[in-house]
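Here is a tokenized protein:
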Amino acid sequence: MKPSFLISGLLTPLLAAVSLFAQTGPFDPGDWPTLKNPTKVVHYVVTDGGLTSPGDSWVADALQILTAGDQGTVDFTIGGQTGKKVTGNNLNIADPAFASWAESEFIDILMQVYGDAGLFNAQGLARNFNFLTGTLPELAAPSGGQIPVEAKNKKWNWVLFRIPNGIRASDGTRLVGSIPANAQGASLNGGVNGGTIRLQDVPSFIVRVVAFGEEGAFGEPADINKFFPAETCDPEPNTNLAGIDLAAGTTNHVQVINDGDQTVTFEASVGPAGDKRHAVLPNGTFLNFGITGNYLGKPCNDPRTVKVCLDFYDDPAFAGLDVRFGPEAYATDDKGGIAIYAADRRQVLAGTGKWIRRSWTVPAVNLKGVNAGTLTAGPRFASENGQVAVSRIDIAVLRIGDHPLTGLDPLVDCYSDPNICTDAYGNFVELDLGKDVKNGLDVGTSGGDQGMIVAEAGPVGDRRQAVRPAREDGTPGFAHQYLNFAILSEALGPNTQPPTRLAICVTYYDDPALIGAQFKPEVYQTERNGVQTLGFTPNSYLVTIEGTDKWRTAYWEISDMKFNGVNQGPQAAARFFVSGKIFVTSVKYAVIRPCGPLANVNLLESCKPVTEVTLGIARSGKDVQLSWSAAAEGFQLQETSSLISPDWKAVSTAPEAQGGQNVVTLTLGTGTTFYRLAK
């Protein structure tokens, strides 16, 4: 019987193990996935502390979710839990015990994420999730794979990524687990910007749990990455705008909510002489506006960016009282999740005695609203230190995807900063190193991966001070292929203003030694659908060195520029990519305002390249003069004696500059000669 007993005793746990490891997701977000291995090393953090360690090898609160700059996060409640929402572009995780991974060929990264649009690209499609590892200047960004669109279920989901822990070329150590001798930047936790492993390009990503583990600590990605189905809902309606105008006595599916802690008073004559309006004031702090008949959609629809535009009165009685007005709270889902809008984005009222019209754009708003009862709603508004009167509100849902109203902003003429429609902000800055001019603009910070060198450059007879990327002359380990310029003293206005249309004019040396090298303004900060992110210019913006041995100009316009800067603070525009040692002697920026006294004025209009050129011809005694605009760079005057079988050749006489024209003077001869401009 003893052998029989041994067989029975061994068989039972074996079957249990087989059963356990045959399991696949989806797994309950209220507990660790059942495929976990408590004996493997795991470092983790749970943002709301809702999970406990399953074994001694699992270390709670060992990881830190960083928040700063382009890797900012905020606390965010949704789906019954509170996680962290990415407000920048990246999610950076710090592991102070990063040395634990020095011998790990692979690192498993388990996350609990919320299933909304933040998991996918701008088109709503699956994206590659890339994890930045290593320290400057030796980096890798391996892909952990994709999350399928089935994860967009408006639920908390477990996802598992497995990434290789690569080998450094400089010393043979692994990218995660040590700090090499050549490390640069904030590498205290073995990675970049103070972290250890950074998840790249994930704006609006929402995470509750992050865990680093040995390979197999959580099971296999194919078994974990399964998802509960989404609940069904009616499609979004073919509408995008609702509102109420109390002054005009009209409404478009919006009514003022008047109950609970958001009771109101209606007044018939608010405002300055000559502009009295019917308006509503909160009796306490809050103003709320309900949308009737689910006109803009239902709470079960996906959260969308909501833009609100209000007319409110800057009462002279507010002077010196620090009265502030703006969005206060909004729903994140239809389960009761609420987010608080940043208080520092509210309007500070100065008591001007004028009506103010401005907008706020709030991303990922669920139409359940806050204390909206049976109505739907956008964000609720708060008046601090005084009761602000409102005469009109418009509520717009900015549609995306395949909706017929995708990309349309019905409130495009309502701005988040009314000052852009005045002369309060500057619209021109200039740096000219050759003339020692620093008018609101200067060379940016030289260091890290954007080392720059200021030196003399240019053709013989026209040498100027200029700046170029350091390239191989900079700090070892970096390509040094960038130029950056700092905007001084908020010369173009504050960072809080909405994205601006910016004209850029650069004077560069067209060096014969650099034929084929290219440059352009490449990456910049912008804001899209209420989320600050990075913008990139297309390759059509590239300027190619032709080798004319002259100083030449290049011109670009970028339509949605924020001045937060990329690797340059406190303010900058776009960072330039430069493929060679191209010298730049002057840079000019001009903001083209959409409204106000300077609406559509471009102070760099003269820098625009000439696209249409007219060749003029006139007789002067025994000579003939051919002329064309001096602004038309790159054109050559050519001649031929016949148009039947033309043999076009360059005219040998060099043009002279006369009153903004290139002029070639030729002596009249016998026969017929034809002339043209060729580029």
